[in-house]
Amino acid sequence: MSLARRCSRTPCGRPAVQTLTFVYADSTAVLGPLATYAEPHAYDLCATHGERLSAPRGWEVLRLATDLGDKGPSGDDLLALADAVREAARPAPIERTAPQRETGHETARRGHLRVLSPE
Questions:
Q1: Residue 73's pLDDT is what?
Q2: Is residue 39 scored above 70 in pLDDT?
Q3: Domain containing 47: what range?
Q4: Which H or E run contains 63?
Q5: Which long-range contacts (CB under 8 A, 24 or more apart) does 27-30 make?
Q6: Which of 3, 23, 71, 101 has the most neighbouring CB atoms within 10 Å?
Q7: Is residue 91 part of a domain?
Q8: Residue 15 has what DSSP assignment?
Q9: b (16+ CB within 10 A) / e for 3-16
């Protein structure tokens, strides 16, 4: 199962690069960069369908600047990922506390257990 979002157009299987939303009060369709997460009232579009987008008569299409080039992970992204993996693999420090001072005297032993009398 791929985690990449796909174009919302039914026959299209290309990866989404832009998100289309509508502002009904202003009769405006807004096509911008791919949203951080999928919204139920927004449509993710591939580059081809984003370029061919047209709006109904009387509506305006607002195209926000997007970089449609295929950007893979940068060197900084890979270093950040490697640092996160190293941090997650590092064992948690063990917190050591000083033993408490005993207040009673040992009166009996049963195996590894001791019976103390209060003082």
A1: 66
A2: yes
A3: 1-68
A4: strand 60-63
A5: 27/58, 27/59, 27/60, 28/59, 28/60, 28/61, 28/62, 29/53, 29/55, 29/59, 29/60, 29/61, 29/62, 30/62, 30/64
A6: 23
A7: no
A8: B
A9: eeeebbbeeeeeeb
Which residue has 């984003």 as its token pair? 50
Q: Which residue has the tokens 């299209």?
A: 12
Residue 55 tokens read as 């709006």
| pLDDT tens per residue, range 48-101 | 999 999 988 999 999 987 665 556 667 777 888 888 888 888 888 888 777 677
Does residue 15 lie in a domain region?
yes
Are 6 and 19 within 8 A, CB to CB?
no
Which residue carries 């893979």 as its tokens?
A: 72
Token pair of 112 as six digits: 């590894």
